[in-house]
Amino acid sequence: MDLQKRLEQLQEKFQKITGQLDRDKLRGEIKELETQMGKPNFWQEAEKAQKISQDLSSKQKLLEKINGLERQIQGISGLTSDESLKEEVKKELSQVEKSLNELELQLFLSDPHDSSESIISIHAGTGGVEAMEWTAMLARMYQRFFDSQGWEYEISDESFGEEAGYKSISMIVHAPFAYGYLKGESGTHRLVRQSPFNADHLRQTSFALVEVLPIIEDETEVEIKQEDLEFEAFRASSHGGQNVNKVSTAVRLKHIPTGITVTAQTERSQLQNRENALEILRAKVWALQEVRKEEERTELKGDYRQASWGNQIRSYVLHPYHLIKDLRTGTETGDTESFLDGSIMKFLEAKLRLDKKLAFS
Residue 302's pLDDT band (boundaries 50, 70, 90)? Predict the structure, then answer.
């Protein structure tokens, strides 16, 4: 394609994106957050202050990216007809295109909780020890992805398999928009491979369920009364069932009205484990409320179907060939090694684009 034509298309795309992001509004939000941070007692509520600080940093980076892109596009203008700079202009345009695609995703992350931190839990399904090992492989895949994005995370709960892997593992991801990016991972993930636990190396199919929930900051959105909670403290355990410590720091919370039970045991402090368990419980109660709302909406429409976490969303085949395919978007890759090493953004983006149907080609 002609370089000038390509530049014009990118300029048009930039105008569409920035028009919807509204820079003036973004500047106003930044100014308000800076005012809050300038107050003398700002850091008295450390947790709240940290979240405001992260929000400010995220918005500042977004504005800086928009302004930087605008300068870059202006810098390219007038150079597209210079043959001696052809290769350099091509590289610049590719960089602009990549940055615009990243900005475009900001438009897709507009649902009420998309900007929230997230809880991601992985549960072994059918397949015995194979499924537990598959759960560990998925946990590693997501952790590598978090590392590549610079996202902080903590393991809040883990239940080890008797021979290998996990029966279940939960992680809290401390990053803005973590829920927006990860929510499309909810569902059943299917693995087909030669079994390393079988002497004949037979082909084995394993399943794991991924659950992604937002951190609910506003406690009024999901009210959990103390009298509705059953609390139990117990000793945290490591792989093989050995006690990590001699005091009961692990926590189990049961929400009596819904019957939802959660545990948290990886922190040394019972108080911190309780806080983590309460965050997870609030998110699970929120998810149940959302499912019930959806059931009511679909019943009114006359096409009610039982809601379920068990939808198969992605297939991972490592034998007899290598292919990972998302069954919703059709996105696929034969580079299974890189994908399982955390290179999953392409698949996350494809799901966001499918959901919003706003791709600009």
Answer: low
